[in-house]
Amino acid sequence: MAEKEKQMSSAEIEAAEKLQSELSNLSGAQRAAVLMLLLGEQQASEIVKFMNPQEVQTLGGAMVDVSDVSQEAVNAILDDFVATIKKQSSLGLGNTD
């Protein structure tokens, strides 16, 4: 039984290392592309209005690049974004005040 637990831990470690490797290979533009794809067309178009043509072109290329990003990486990117917003915003996301 202890060996099975050890194997499970080894598999978990391997999965975490794979996720970390995947995330470390993503640029800021690619992370932004993941978030934009999560938003949907209408909300993303509202953001694109404020971008210059070069930024839009970079983002479009990044959207193509992230088509094979794992669901675990998408979740990690979203979690990181929410954590960043919580630190930088007075919106109080998740606060009960």
Structure commentary:
By secondary structure, the protein is mainly alpha-helical. It has five helices and no strands. It has a single domain, classed as Annexin V, domain 1 (Orthogonal Bundle). The relative contact order is 0.13. The model has no long low-confidence stretch (mean pLDDT 88).
Secondary-structure map with pairings?
Blueprint: H1 2-24, H2 28-39, H3 41-48, H4 53-65, H5 71-88
Helix pairs in contact: 1-5, 2-4
User: Can you give the helix content as a percent range?
Assistant: over 70%
Strand content is under 5%
Largest sheet: none
Number of structural domains: 1
Order of helices and strands: HHHHH
Q: What structural class should be given to the helix and strand makeup?
A: mainly alpha
What's the overall geometry? Answer: globular
CATH-defined topology: Annexin V, domain 1
How many E strands? 0
CATH class: Mainly Alpha
Instruction: Work out the helix count.
Output: 5
Mean pLDDT across the residues is: 88
**Cα end-to-end separation:** 47 Å
Low-confidence runs: none
Please give the oligomerization state of what you see.
Answer: single chain
Backbone CA Rg: 17 Å
CATH architecture: Orthogonal Bundle
Concise description?
76% of the residues lie in helices and 0% in strands. By secondary structure, the protein is mostly helical.
Characteristic key phrases:
about 100 residues, mainly alpha, Annexin V, domain 1, 5 helices, about 0% strand, globular
